[in-house]
Design a protein that fits this description.
2 copies of one chain form a homodimer.
Chain A lengths: L9 E5 L3 H9 L6 E6 L3 E3 L4 H5 L9 E3 H5 L5 E5 L2 E5 L4 E4 L2 E4 L2 E4 L3 E3 L5 H6 L6 H20 L3 H7 L1 E5 L3 H16 L1 H4 L9 E5 L11 H13 L3 E3 L4 E4 L3 E4 L4 E3 L2 E4 L3 E3 L17 E2 L12 E3 L4 E2 L13 H19 L14 E6 L2 E5 L4 E3 L1 H14 L3 H17 L16
């Protein structure tokens, strides 16, 4: 790769998500050369992807150009690249745009959808881990309603108007809530010819409660909110297969749907060279010590979702959320500088700031370390926190305006099929 | 097609652009059944497509859901459909979703890029007639800069940083100006490793002035503005071919570029059944009389870009712009009601409201029927008029905020490659 050598040690960061960007900011004015690689030229604010899928936000409002983040940082380089392999012996990366030597390497490649080796689900389901995937889902939902108008086969029409969301983590819950509001507020006006009362929103969870990473109170209240909105919540049900129309489960329960959203699991986005069992756990996350150092390697680190750092509170690793990623990125910045100066590194200490999810207008659940609350105030807190962590002033203003507009008008105007998902005949 | 018959006469409108929507609004509360067909589920505000291509606006801000426009109109139906053929004898449309009988048919299908039968230009150039095309261009521009960083071949790098825009109508002029501002304000910060002084923006026009539909004064001033911005304006040059890298012209002049934008012509988007020489002119526009009636047919009409209505002032037909489309749509609404009531129709009388184009910040040219002016005041007028005609309150607010932000910050944050245009290896 065409990157000039400098006298500074070279730190290569793979991934411009929360962890990678936090780390980059920490290193911005230090005597190190930083090369940031990402397969996109933008940072994605993943917590709001479901609002892109449901027409509430424009995709460009939750993306931010990585080059703009780095533009005032001396000694920084960005390259649009897919990393294909890591050579941990020769300290070298192999990418689609060439090879790159590093002195220090930080894997911040995030997570990807986990289909648990079910090829049929992988081939037929919609995921929501990236902006293009979210836009595909937006298009599919709208196309299915257009198609529902065309068919006279009742079974077919119901399958077109039936939603099955697998996985009741924040993504599944937030999507189900948004769809329920669309069913109520938008569909009857947009499709006066369809009996939109038959629209079904099914949220399926394999365990005995939704939002299982949150408090029991939050789970209970979120489920109440969803039921108020008319979502069918199915607990203790595990989806076993989906063939493009029929959903089968571990019970007698089946569904017919053309809109099947898989939000049931994520795994670490590992890279060849660090993907053998010596480096990763069951969830394909890279095992790291308290300095985010990959086990057995001195100059290779992993942060964020892809890193599995076990501690007493989280024996299976820190949660795959924005906060651990941001905090690890910042801490590793300090530690890399210490390491270069041959000072001892400081162990990472996770400050749990809690978790939250929104279900619909005036409906959210918030677990802070000291307070847990639900309802309208939680909803304001949720919005404030999301605006705060969104990168970019313009993005914040545009998202805020969309939210105010959607709230006042009970509307979501970005119900646009800009790129059709299915090829229309 | 699955549309119930009513006792009202059925008017089918093909196309939800300016003409189709104006007509629909006029018919909204009348005793007619209206079926609107479009291949997109949204109305596109075409005059701002170039700002989507250049990262200044989000695509969703210049699109508006057609179903939302129609939602309060009784007796209206929308279908997402491609019209494939018109049977003018049996009064029937053939579409990808079935056949449809009509009592009255209005073709408002707009215009499409005219490559003048040059297959090589068609295959290798970028057009800017739709939102997906504009997004493709946005991606390509950004990808070419990323690629310019990777190559050590100077010739290749220059071709990646060279822009050739063919056609100096409003689209070409506005795009050239926007690219010049990006060259100056954004590229040096985003790509500190590239010598962005070598970026060339070439605007090629076959006639002896740019903006040739406007006044001589406007042409002259627009050219001055472009030159101030560093755009190379080539007049009296006709592009003869483009093979994906080399642009040849009718003179010795050649260019090497990987970003070749074809804005040199449009033609009517005719439909089989009305596309024979008996119905269309050289520009493939459907010939209509002063009532927008297709020649020789009583119940079939054409409005907007696809219609060629000749008059004394415009012997080759009214200009293919928003104003004639809007005015014809409104007038035809009245005339259709008159026709149904067996009253005489009123001839269309075009009110020329002038034309305008923006070149860059504080730089625009405006020709009103009574006043012609250029510069900063013209720029404000341009912005005001475009905000006014943009459909939707939310769209107006979001576009306005983006403009204010871009103006204050000399920035365009939507420089995002959401969907790559070229397949990256």
């Amino acid at each position: 790769m065409n990157i000039a050598k400098t006298s500074f040690p070279r730190i290569v960061i793979v991934g411009g998500g929360f962890a990678g960007i936090s780390l980059a900011k920490k290193l911005s004015k230090q005597e190190v050369q930083v090369v940031l690689l990402d397969k996109n030229n933008y940072h994605t604010f993943q917590p709001l992807l479901y609002q892109v899928s449901t027409g509430g936000l424009e995709p460009d409002s939750i993306a931010y150009p990585i080059r703009k983040i780095l533009k005032d940082f001396p000694n920084f380089q960005f390259r649009l690249a897919h990393v294909q392999e890591i050579d941990t012996i020769k300290n070298k990366l192999i990418t689609n745009i060439g090879k790159l030597k590093f002195d220090y390497l930080v894997i911040a490649s995030g997570s990807e959808t986990n289909y648990f080796d079910n090829e049929s689900i992988k081939a037929n389901s919609m995921a929501m881990k990236s902006i293009p995937e979210s836009l595909n889902l937006r298009s599919l939902i709208l196309e299915n309603f257009e198609d529902a108008l065309l068919t006279t086969d009742l079974n077919e029409r119901n399958a077109l108007m039936n939603f099955v969301i697998v996985g009741a983590g924040p993504t599944g819950v937030e999507l189900a809530g948004a769809l329920a509001e669309i069913k109520k507020g938008i569909l009857p006006k947009d499709y006066p010819d369809l009996d939109t009362r038959s629209v079904q929103i099914n949220l399926i969870q394999s365990s005995d409660r939704i939002l299982k990473e949150m408090s029991a109170n939050a789970s209970k209240k979120a489920e109440d909110f969803l039921e108020e909105l008319g979502v069918n919540v199915w607990k203790n049900v595990r989806v076993t297969d989906y063939d493009g129309k029929l959903v089968t489960t571990n019970s007698d329960l089946t569904f017919e749907t053309f809109t099947f959203i898989w939000a049931a699991g994520v795994k670490g986005a590992t890279i060849k060279g660090l993907d053998s069992s010596e480096f990763i756990n069951k969830g394909e996350r890279i095992l790291v010590n308290e300095f985010n150092q990959v086990k057995g390697l001195n100059n290779i680190f992993a942060v964020g979702d892809v890193a599995c750092m076990e501690n007493d509170q989280f024996p299976k690793g820190l949660p795959m959320m924005a906060q651990p990623a941001i905090q690890q990125g910042l801490q590793l910045g300090d530690n890399l500088l210490r390491l270069i100066e041959q000072k001892p590194m400081v162990p990472f200490d996770y400050k749990d700031k809690g978790a939250m999810a929104t279900i619909g207008r005036n409906k959210a659940v918030v677990d802070l370390p000291k307070f847990k609350f639900q309802g309208i105030f939680a909803w304001y807190v949720w919005m404030f926190v999301h605006l705060f962590f969104l990168i970019g002033f313009r993005n914040r203003v545009v998202v805020f305006i969309n939210w105010v507009y959607n709230y006042i008008r009970f509307d979501r105007e970005a119900r646009l099929i800009i790129r059709p998902y299915k090829k229309r005949n």
